[in-house]
Amino acid sequence: MEKDYQRAVYWYNKAAERGNANAQYNLGYCYNNPVPYIEHDLEKSVYWYTKAAEQGDPIAMNYLGEMYSEGEGIPKDPEKAEYWQKKLLERVPNLHKPVDISDIF
Description:
This protein has helices at 5-17, 21-32, 42-54, 58-70, 78-91, 101-104. By secondary structure, it is an all-alpha fold.
């Protein structure tokens, strides 16, 4: 089956506009990454990542933190970068927890 990216984005838009966080994240991803037939638009990417992150999507929180930290598509903003990184760690508290090798063996 051939992938139809334009159709996927159409349906992501429909779902995202109705508040679906997963669709909002996916739209952010499509606009942020090289997806065939989809314009690279960091402004739209930030918009949709923000919508998803505000609903608790941890991957969107991570991307937003990175984008604000690097100034990718938006003005560099260390405070907003830190805000989203903290929100991410609240949502996924063990994300940066070191692995204890004795737990594995």
